């Protein structure tokens, strides 16, 4: 893909280092009139602990925020460009914010042309070759804005010109970005005449300025390599969210994860539109949830142009972060709508949503290979997977060495990470019996068997049995999909390989290092907690709860079937204990365990759920 990942962290560090970031606010009266959007933006950046310095030849005399700027009231783009050329050498900048064009659109002779702004942006790129230039859509204007027939300004001219101007802006910015310029479009079209514009029909009121300050704050955070959107207005009473049902705001300190406020929803929820994203780029959404009651609690996203609604279901009664909800923007989309919602019988607190670039290049290129030796039989059930393997090594492709031994079994676990979105078919070949499982996302609990055979094949003999071939699976570029594969060898020859076909893969090919990531039971790469299930694929064993958590000498596993099996393992896979559930409530003795994180697996028939417990001593 030709475009670079939006606002890469390492790129920015190479350009501006770790010193204080200099921000130049360039524009017209919407920038000039103090406090404009600049106060709110500065307050939010300061609250985040970001070291920055506003620069420019003007100052509004502020004492509670940095009042330096380059706003010129009543002036069009060409005037602002001349000023920029005159002062740029005295005011170096790392980030330039441009909110300019209202005055241009007020004149009938301009006709909503984006050309003056395009020329101004090009000049900013020329004078500040290392700076990121963030260009925002202008506020809406009323029908009578700039009404002055003697000057050629007629009713409706500014309003119509402003619409045309804003419509042309994303394409202008994307064209410059594709040409290698550091120009990024900032979508501020969420400002409305009804709520955000003052009585003059031109300038934002304080509500509008504060909304714009939040928008530019998110854009600056992105430019600094941080998330395009962090916390998403939770601390601002959900001012930019559209709520529905019985959504409300909690200000109780005990029910927030950070800051002073979280969203509390019961039979309702809220939507927030994150703007300023790059068409075709891949991002991830993460959020925190603290369930109060019920199973129907979701973090979701849609309206990004790359597919339908995706998200995760979360039911933990402790603050729990979702896994990466990965999405790729459509070819012309620059925004995504994120949501928090609950069903009719459910309620939960939500906090700290983060949208950030998803970096596939960080995958490890290897997966885990567990081997059990000196075991008889040829079926997968002969492998004692609930015991510690005799050895654990890594593979850089999904193929084990052939003809290595007899009477052993193997398990391969990890993540498959496709580089191209599309339809894939998987194949398994092995000697003797072999099975391949794939999850619908990065959660091990969602893995299902999609290919297998109950007799031997030669190495890479992909089509000896019909069951060796999976049905077609639709995969998203950059998304991690958990998988596991088994092979049980009796005697004679032995082999195991997993192959695939798909976009750009015409013949069955063994899956290699460029599409593999190592399995880690918990944390950012693993997300091995079944209270983070994907929507429409909930974990079958529902309602299982671990408490207290963290624990010390003991903890309880509740809401289990009477005959459910409960096993506890370390992060390395070592089994600590295995018990049968004692009715609805089972107490586990952890008095002799070391401090750390342990994995709890509860199995009832064919249904399984996985959770974790922290032992603190």
Brief description of this entry?
The protein is α+β, with helices and mostly antiparallel strands.
Explain what the structure shows.
By secondary structure, the chain is an alpha+beta fold. The chain folds into four domains: 9-226, 3-Layer(aba) Sandwich (Rossmann fold), CATH 3.40.50.1110; 234-358, Sandwich (Jelly Rolls); 362-518, Jelly Rolls (Sandwich); 540-615, Sandwich (Immunoglobulin-like). Strands 1, 2, 3, 4, 5, 6 and 7 form a seven-stranded mixed beta sheet that branches. Helix 3 packs across helix 9 (206-223) and helix 4 packs parallel to helix 6. The radius of gyration is 28 Å and the shape is elongated. The model is unreliable at 1-19, 226-231 and 521-542 (pLDDT under 50).
Break the fold down into its secondary structure elements and pairings:
Elements: H1 9-16, E1 21-27, H2 29-32, H3 38-47, E2 52-55, E3 58-59, E4 68-71, H4 77-87, E5 95-99, H5 102-105, H6 115-127, E6 132-136, H7 157-178, E7 183-186, H8 193-196, H9 206-223, E8 229-230, E9 242-245, E10 248-250, E11 262-266, E12 268-274, E13 282-293, E14 297-302, E15 310-314, E16 320-321, E17 325-328, E18 336-342, E19 347-357, E20 367-373, E21 391-395, E22 408-416, E23 422-431, E24 433-438, E25 448-453, E26 473-475, E27 481-489, E28 495-502, E29 505-510, E30 516-518, E31 532-534, E32 545-547, E33 554-558, E34 565-570, E35 575-580, E36 585-589, E37 596-604, E38 607-615
Parallel strand pairs: 1-2, 1-4, 1-5, 5-6, 6-7
Antiparallel strand pairs: 3-4, 8-19, 9-12, 10-11, 11-19, 12-18, 13-16, 13-17, 13-19, 14-15, 14-18, 15-31, 20-21, 20-22, 22-27, 22-30, 23-26, 23-28, 24-25, 24-27, 28-29, 32-33, 33-36, 34-35, 34-37, 37-38
């Amino acid at each position: 893909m030709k475009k670079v990942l939006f606002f890469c962290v390492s790129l920015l560090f190479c350009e501006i280092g770790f010193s204080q970031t200099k921000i130049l606010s360039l524009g017209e009266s919407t920038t000039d009139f103090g406090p404009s959007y600049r106060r709110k933006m500065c307050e939010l950046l300061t609250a985040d602990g970001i070291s920055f310095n506003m620069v420019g030849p003007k100052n509004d005399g502020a004492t509670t925020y940095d009042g330096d700027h380059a706003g010129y009231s009543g002036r069009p783009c060409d005037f602002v460009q001349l000023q920029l050329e005159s002062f740029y050498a005295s005011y170096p900048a790392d980030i330039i914010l441009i909110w300019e064009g209202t005055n241009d659109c007020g004149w009938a002779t301009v006709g909503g042309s984006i050309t003056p702004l395009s020329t101004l942006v090009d000049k900013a790129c020329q004078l500040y070759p290392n700076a990121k230039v963030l260009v925002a859509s202008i506020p809406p204007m009323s029908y009578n804005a700039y009404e002055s027939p003697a000057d050629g300004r007629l009713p409706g001219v500014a309003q119509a010109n402003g619409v045309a101007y804003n419509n042309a802006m994303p394409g202008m910015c994307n064209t410059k970005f594709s040409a290698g310029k550091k120009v990024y479009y900032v979508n501020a079209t969420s400002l409305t005449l009804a709520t955000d514009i003052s009585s003059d029909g031109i300038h934002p009121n304080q509500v509008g300025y504060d909304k714009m300050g939040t928008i530019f704050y998110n854009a600056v955070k992105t430019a600094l390599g941080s998330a395009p959107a962090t916390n998403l207005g939770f601390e601002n009473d959900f001012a930019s969210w559209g709520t529905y049902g019985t959504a409300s705001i909690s200000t109780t300190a005990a029910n927030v994860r950070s800051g002073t406020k979280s969203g509390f929803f019961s039979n309702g929820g809220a939507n927030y539109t994150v703007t300023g994203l790059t068409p075709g780029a891949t991002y991830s959404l993460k959020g925190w949830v603290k369930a109060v009651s019920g199973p129907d609690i979701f973090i979701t996203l849609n309206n990004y142009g790359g597919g339908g609604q995706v998200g995760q279901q979360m039911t933990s009664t402790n603050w729990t972060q979702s896994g990466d909800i990965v999405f790729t923007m459509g070819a012309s989309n620059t925004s995504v709508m994120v949501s928090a919602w609950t069903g009719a019988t459910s309620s939960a607190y939500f906090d700290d949503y983060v949208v950030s670039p998803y970096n596939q290049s960080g995958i490890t290129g290897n997966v885990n290979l567990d081997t059990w030796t000196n075991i008889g039989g040829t079926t997968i059930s002969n492998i004692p997977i609930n015991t510690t393997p005799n050895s654990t090594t890594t593979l850089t492709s999904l193929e084990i060495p052939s003809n290595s031994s007899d009477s052993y079994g193997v398990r391969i676990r990890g993540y498959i990470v496709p580089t191209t979105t599309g339809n894939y078919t998987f194949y398994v070949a092995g000697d003797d019996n072999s099975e391949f499982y794939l999850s619908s996302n990065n959660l091990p609990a969602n893995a299902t068997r999609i290919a297998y055979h109950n007799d031997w094949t030669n190495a890479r003999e992909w089509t000896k049995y019909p069951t060796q071939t999976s049905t077609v699976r639709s995969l998203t570029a950059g998304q991690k999909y958990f998988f596991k594969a088994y092979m049980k060898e009796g005697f004679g020859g032995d082999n195991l390989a997993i192959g695939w076909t798909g976009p750009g893969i015409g013949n069955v090919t063994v899956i290699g290092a460029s599409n593999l990531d190592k399995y880690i039971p918990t944390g950012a790469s693993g997300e091995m907690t079944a209270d983070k299930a994907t929507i429409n694929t909930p974990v079958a064993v529902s309602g299982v709860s671990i408490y207290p958590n963290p624990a010390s000498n003991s903890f309880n596993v509740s809401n289990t079937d009477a005959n459910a099996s409960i096993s506890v393992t370390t992060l390395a896979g070592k089994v600590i204990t295995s018990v049968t559930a004692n009715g609805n409530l089972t107490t586990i003795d952890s008095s002799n365990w070391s401090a750390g994180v342990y994995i709890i697996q509860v199995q009832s028939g064919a249904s399984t759920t996985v959770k974790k417990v922290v032992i603190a001593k």
